[in-house]
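Title: Prediction job returns without error message
Component: structure pipeline
Severity: low
Priority: P3
Assignee: unassigned

Description:
Job completed but the reporter wants confirmation the result is attached to the right record. Sequence as submitted:
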Amino acid sequence: YNSFLGGVFTKVDRINRNKNYCILLADKYLIKDNVATKLNSGDTVSIGDQVEVRLVVMADNAFEFVYIEDPKPATFEAEKLLSTWVYDGLYHYQEMQNAQTNFYMDNLPKGTYEIKYYLRPTAEGLYKVGATNLQSMYAPEFSAHSSNFEIRVK
């Protein structure tokens, strides 16, 4: 028996947001004095600053068994380290890992939803972050991804 597996790799800089069956936006905000300021790609934060990650999912249809994979910048640590079920308008399981945060949903109803979590940078440098991916676990053709992001820590 023979088989063939093909794959395509590209630089993180070349990834743009797609618009398949739902739209996924991954925005980062700097929190200072309870005020959120949107970070653009290439912006600078300081070590120890609180960065809020907002994932906005706009679903045109209802989906079941959806998985979101959100990569973290290197040296950014999550404020909450425990994986748990969360309800913030959308019931999902949030799994914190070293390199990424994963979200699992049994149901993703039609509509717009926002998922938030918080990170803190721990070392100086320039970090590139890949795209956030959303995919139906049993129908992978239903997917979406955000664009890439670059952040500098001083």
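Comment from assignee: result matches the submitted record. Residues 29 and 38 are 4 Å apart (CA to CA).
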